[in-house]
Amino acid sequence: MDYEEKYKLEKCNEKGMMKYKLINKKYGKGGRHGERVYNIMNCGPTICASSGGPCAKTGLYDFDGKIRTLSIDETLKMFGFDSTYKYETLVNKKKMLFYLGNSIVVNVVEQIVKDL
């Protein structure tokens, strides 16, 4: 994602999930879900079916200085799918992220049910 023309990075508290916020250079505003850069070593945020910003569905992640969105495979792993899961019928990234954003994390629900 090429954000540098329109946005600047603002550093966030090191202890939180977010490393940076994208701040719009023209308007001085930012920090919505799709304008946040997360640390890959912490928990991931919600995958949103719809929200604002240049990377609205997944947010952005800092991978050793390279800021980018998650791939479909990386997002599926966050939802508990293993690397052998096949999704040939839905290869459009936006649609896949929309459906994931409207779903639940199955292994979390399984654990909650076990704890009941």
Tally of structural domains? 1
Widest sheet, order of strands: 1-2-3-4-5
Number of helices: 3
* Rg: 15 Å
- Global mean pLDDT: 82
Please explain how this structure is put together.
The chain has one domain (7-115): Alpha-Beta Complex (DNA Methylase, Chain A, domain 2), CATH 3.90.120. The model has no long low-confidence stretch (mean pLDDT 82). The protein contains three helices and five strands; from the N terminus they run E-E-E-E-E-H-H-H. Helices cover 22% and strands 20% of the residues. It is globular. A hairpin with a 2-residue loop joins strand 4 (60-63) and strand 5. With 116 residues, the protein is α+β, with helices and mostly antiparallel strands. The protein has a five-stranded mixed sheet with strand order 1-2-3-4-5, with no helix packed on it. It has helices at 72-78, 93-101, 106-115, and strands at 7-11, 18-24, 36-39, 60-63, 66-68. The termini are far apart.
Write the layout of secondary structure elements.
Blueprint lengths: L6 E5 L6 E7 L11 E4 L20 E4 L2 E3 L3 H7 L14 H9 L4 H10 L1
Parallel strand pairs: 3-4
Antiparallel strand pairs: 1-2, 2-3, 4-5
